[in-house]
Amino acid sequence: MTAEFFHEGDLVAVLTAQPIDRFLDYKAPEGGCHMGAFVEVPLGPRKVLGVVWGNGAGDFDCAKVRSVIRVLDVVPMREEMQLFLTRVADYTITPMSQMLRLATRAPGLGDAPSMRKVYRMGTGQPDRITDARTKVLAVLDEYGGLSFTLKEVADMAGVGTSVVKGLVKQGAVSEEDAPRDVPYSTLDPDYGGKELSTEQAVGAEALRAALRTDGYGTTLLKGVTGSGKTEVYLEAVAECLRQGKQALVLLPEIALSGEFINRVEARFGFKPAEWHSGVTMTERRRCWKMVGQGAAQMVVGARSALFLPYQNLGLIVVDEEHDTSYKQEDGVLYNARDMAVLRAAINGAQVVLASATPSLESWANVEAGKYQRVELKSRFGPAVMPEMTAIDMRVEDVPNGKWVSPTLKNAISGRLEKGEQSLIFLNRRGYAPITICRACGHQIGCDHCDARMVEHRFLNRLMCHQCGETKPMPTVCPHCEVEGKLAPVGPGVERMAEEVTALFPDARVVVLSSDLYGSARAMKAHIEEIAQGGADIIIGTQLVAKGHNFPNLTLVGVIDADLGLQGSDLRAAERTFQLMRQVAGRAGRAETPGTAMLQTFQPEHAVIMAILAGDEESFWAAEAAERKAAGVPPYGRMAGIILSSTNAQEVFDLGADMARRDEPLRRIGAQVFGPAPAPIARVRGRHRVRLLVKAEKAAPLQKALVAWAAQFKLRGELRMAIDIDPQSFY
Ligand code: ADP
Ligand code: ZN
Question: Is residue 463 part of a domain?
């Protein structure tokens, strides 16, 4: 390590995770410290974690400068990581202290390596031999010199822990202290590769060649669902491992990670490190530390895994790169896909963006020659893309309060006769989106948000999908107090299940919706069971659109293909296109070809036509032309400003004031739109007002935004959030 070194007493600038707007000067401690060292420093009466960021500014009374307390036993932050955090902070307009918090989200980083007791064969003889004792000794004998935790030994031997403890007392089993944070097992790039199809082999070679350039590059790996994208990018991971570099695979949803981890184990012999909200604190610390020591070769994780302290990062894969969950919508508002590209550019690493339905951003970057493109056109094995048809709802005879058209019903009957599965897709959780009083017309809303409460009949409650608030289903109207007149309006998946069960009383009908499960694991187990044939008709939300395999599924019926086309979101068409294609991709994964049927009231809508024709390139080209003409992303830049307060007048006044005093923005040719009530104008009791800023692609937007925002004081309850490249328009 060649990082700059500071001798004892030198002034150093330290970044802490405390909400202070500047670096703080300290004196380097006894023994000195490296640039990037993780340190503990005094701050008022407290001791806090910090990172040595550079030379002290020296603008503080030198006599009063305190010393760094100690240097933590952690590998110093690399210069490239400092640069990455700084760039993300500048791009997203986030204070550096928050960036550091993001980069140190593991407990006990400063603690001495903690120890735990481990057990292995000892040299002593037990005073008497029992069956239980024999089992323990046999197990330890079988594994020779290896040690295990108490629970592991007991479990392997099938005895209680007291048996093991008894043997320890007699020296027959030895007990020792070992570091808790054990390194990950070494992955073998040549362990279990599959034989690739020609197309897959060509794709894999392109990715390997990119890695061999030893520099930065991004490749869009586009391929229909089931074409083997995962197989192919695991070959890139293998190449990265061969080079002795670390690989990161980002997944959009932790629910999918279990299946993925098993595939990694089958491919490389052992499980990789995991980093997401579902892993324990102990595992988090292990992962953070091992990544920092270069002892974790591969990390599978969610967004924030980008901020782990890699020593030698060679590859970042962003799976399902179009997925909106890559945009963090809380705290630091960053898009993990875009920041992955930034991180790789700084590190000289490769990026693979994998998707069946790429984002327009990535498609445009390929068109502009910034990204390479690798394409898998056919599904692996005999499966082919489903045939797609529209069901014109204007001519179908569907009774009031029902949603399954006769055409779709016939198709489902056909599958039931053949013993094949059908999926009914509706992206609406709960029973009914609206509950209305037939006496007075009142619609039940949330007390804290401007959103309707959604009936969840399984729970027998109303729920606000905005803030999560629930209340019991009332029997009288809260407005006119008439009893028995509350009625559901519109369909949710639970209501679809009712309709479908009535149509097919003998079929096994299940609902797949994220709110029906207590844990990601329970959900995964259920999906697995359904995929194995545990249901005839699946009714699902967008949860099923993501990556799950249903080999016996041959029909997908989309209840309301028009649903996503409404609304003011500039990505509405793109999202609908992606979602419909993904859902359709669930059908016919194995030998039997599938059919996808889209119920729509506007079969001649351009997006619906493009989906049916399967003509992606013309969809992208048309969509790109529209965005270009409107000067919106990816051909222009946008920022959203959300102001909120418990006081409605206060937010509107500030919004109006900001729109008026827009000089710093006008100077770069940017325009301000608004203020307008945010699409959800009240959330958790806070009133929300939105401004949108639009600028040309090359304009220095962040600088201008900072200068603009600095003109206004946020008093009292007022909050301002700046969202660069907003994805959702809430
Ligand atoms: P995608 O990521 O494009 O959806 P996957 O990589 O998940 O596709 O592949 C779909 C299925 O086909 C998986 O079950 C995978 O194991 C299998 N598969 C893909 N390629 C091969 C191959 N070359 N040999 C054997 N099985 C394969
Ligand atoms: Zn609410």
Answer: no
